[in-house]
Amino acid sequence: MKNKKHNSKGARFTVVGSILILMAGFLMVLMGLNVYQYFKIKPHFASEIMARLNRTEVNNIKGFFAQVSEKLLTVHDLGKNGVLKFEDIINLNRKFFPLLKNQKQVTGLILADSTGREYFLYLDGDSWVTRVSSVKGSVTHMVFQKWNGPDEPVKKWEKNVRDYDPRKRPWFRSSSSERRVFWSPVYRFYSTGKPGVTASVSWAESGNPPRTVVFALDITLSQIQKFLELQDDNKHELLFILNPRDKFFITPKYIGMIITAAPSVSETEAAEDSVLISRIFQAWEKAGMPLDSFVKVSMDSSKWLASLRPLEQGDEAFYVGIAAPERVVLADLRNTLFDVDFSDMAVALLGGAVVLFIFWKVGGFRSEKGQESVPPLLRIRDYIEQGEGSQVEFKSTVRTNLKTGKQGKEIEFAWLKAVVAFLNSNGGALLIGVDDDGRIVGIEPDNFENQDKCQLHLKNLINQHIGAEYSTYINISLVEIDERTVILIECTPCEEPVFMKIGKNEEFYIRSGPSSIKLSPSQTVTFVLQKIKAGG
Question: Which of 153, 216, 429, 516 could, after both became Cys, cross-link 171 (CB 3.0–4.6 A)?
Fold first, then answer.
């Protein structure tokens, strides 16, 4: 009976009628956008565009720095468990050689403590080099070794220096917050003299006396610049990383300092970037460093819009910035404007509103899958930024209990309940492979052979426990993000009550805030009757 009801409703529309309805709706939206943009939100529209562009760039560049933070925290946990011993160089080599080899943006790694001991590893061509240091009075004794492998030394030499103490380096910082990553100011590395920054994490170890241990990773500014070059695919925009604390910036073509006056050199491309970013920084600082709007500056005869966002929430060491000429930002909007008068727009708005209302009343929107014009990757980013709520929920895995490492039906039932609740309420999106804090963890612990096997497993569970007849209301996407797989299940509201089948039992769920609530039989009847009475 359910299928007949659904098909009879769909039969009311001819192909021609559906196209006319969609065209009328499109016309209404287009006309509304023109009126609204011209008379109310032109400045805010530019702000929204800049914020969206900036969010996209931030997400890309965050991945670059997030890999560094993840490695630091992994080593932090090893250190807290007491497995890192300064005396066992071979063991340190075995742990850190693979890390440095696989972390392309890192040029060196350091393990040091508050007694003055230090283990430093870097690559010299194809050879590994370690520098083991110990401080005695005002002299630091350094032992260098070149290695073909973790336990294959090929050369050794030593020297004493008076200008180096690991405890006085910019990265040696003891943090009172557990697992907090610290980013150093820009400085020149002792080993190479190249400018860069160092990310570090620290922990306390008991002993007599107690000591602080710091693990750090070196990143040259040129490595960051190379990464920006890969992100720079738009000739009209200027992408940059800004450090307001040290007043330096990096663009895909230039590394420089914030200036307060016009440069004395001729206006090369690099100098123009320097002047533009300096003006952006001064305007942004004067405006109170806004994160949800943009600043406007003048450069020669052009107006530029710029927006900045921090790489890490609560860490103001680095900001990602993007700037674009105002004419470029608003070009797409201007191109959509039609040469129409107010009476034409009023007729289009009124007609579109009537057609869309009829379309909605007969359930035309029920078969939509949501934001199909937006790529699944961007939809996932938007859902994560929105956070869990009445129409968004996160789950870490499809079938695996992360605490026990075993597969369990209770894990599958947890996300199936959310799907049923979305269908019975106002629709929503379920992200599997994202933890409760919005971090992308991936579904790799579920150990599916491939994405096809995973998708088949999902559809089988939905058919078994919800019903294949509701598949038109459910859209499943598998997306690769940072080498992890995330499942996006988007649900549109169903006009008929949907039950979850567990054995011979049927359960009814709805959304209440960020939770899926099970209703009793009497509550279910009341809910369904109220929904029918409301027309929906």
Answer: 216
Q: Is residue 25 scored above 70 in pLDDT? A: no
Nearest to 434 by CA among 500, 375, 510, 489: 489
Closest CA to 340 of 4, 10, 12, 33: 33
Could you tell me which residues are beta bridge partners of residue 430?
393, 489
Residue 513 has pLDDT above 80, yes or no: yes
Token pair for 413: 């039932």
> What is the pTM (predicted TM-score) of this model?
0.52
User: What's the pLDDT tens digit per position in 246-286?
Assistant: 888 888 888 888 876 554 444 445 567 788 888 888 888 88
**Among 229, 485, 513, 276, CA closest to 387:** 513
| Alpha-carbon span 257 to 250, nearest angstrom | 9
pLDDT, tens digit (0-9, with 9 covering 90-100), for 327-383: 777 765 555 555 555 555 555 566 566 665 665 555 554 444 444 557 888 889 999
How many angstroms separate the CA atoms of 175 and 195, rounded?
Answer: 24
Q: Which two tokens stand for residue 161?
A: 């220096």
Side chain identity, residue 464:
Q
Decide if 500 contacts 457 (C-beta within 8 A): no
Determine the straight-line distance between the first and last CA of the chain, rounded to whole angstroms.
Answer: 18
Q: Are 417 and 506 in contact (CB under 8 A)?
A: no
* DSSP string of 486-506, one letter each residue: EEEEEEPPPSS--EEEETTEE
Question: Is the preceding peptide bond at 209 cis, omega within 30 degrees of 0?
Answer: yes
pLDDT in tens, 426-478: 999 999 999 999 999 999 999 999 999 999 999 999 999 999 999 889 999 99
Average pLDDT over residues 212-238: 83
Beta-carbon contacts of 156 under 8 Å, excluding residues fewer than 6 positions away, are 143, 144, 145, 146
In this structure, what are the phi and psi dihedrals at residue 467, rounded to the nearest 5 degrees? 135, 130
Domains of the chain (ranges; CATH) run 32-83+232-352 (3.30.450), 84-221 (3.30.450.20), 368-536 (3.30.950.30)
Q: Beta strand 428-432 with 484-491: parallel, antiparallel or unpaired?
A: antiparallel
CB atoms within 10 A of CB 107: 21
H or E segment and range at residue 48: helix 42-80
Q: Where does the pLDDT of residue 306 fall: very low under 50, low under 70, confident under 90, or very high at 90 and above?
A: confident
Neighbouring CB atoms inside 10 A of 319's CB total: 22
Q: What is the DSSP letter of 313?
A: T
Say which amino acid occupies 191. S
